[in-house]
Amino acid sequence: MSANVAAHLALAVADLLDRDRPELRRCDGDGCGWLFLDTTRNHSRRWCDPADCGNRARVRAYTRRQQAARPAASPDSPPSTM
Ligand SMILES: [Zn+2]
């Protein structure tokens, strides 16, 4: 599938919705690349779906912070057997 087609479609939709001046943006999600119309007043939206890509980005940022604070001592610790 071509991202170009999606972009043209989104632009066409943006044209139709011109009255509210939505901003065509690309999702910040890693490997997502979806286009969406940011209809927030201050154009602060970053993801196609805050509950999906937004949540994943937040989890990733959280995990990165945790790893930075605590260097991986044993990333591959063997499972404890009983
Ligand atoms: Zn996304």
Care to describe what's here?
Residues 24-66 form the Zinc finger CGNR domain. It holds the Pfam family zf-CGNR. Residues 63-82 are annotated as: Disordered. The protein is mostly helical and 82 residues long. It has a single domain (3-69), classed as Orthogonal Bundle (Jann2411-like fold). It has 2 helices and 2 strands. It has helices at residues 3-16, 50-69; strands at 23-26, 35-38. The termini are far apart. The model has no long low-confidence stretch (mean pLDDT 83).
Q: In terms of structural class, how would the helical and strand content be classed?
A: mainly alpha
Work out the number of β strands.
2
Each distinct ligand = zinc ion
Shape: elongated
Keywords, separated by commas or semicolons:
82 residues, 2 helices, mainly alpha, 41% helix, Jann2411-like fold, two-stranded antiparallel ribbon, binds zinc ion
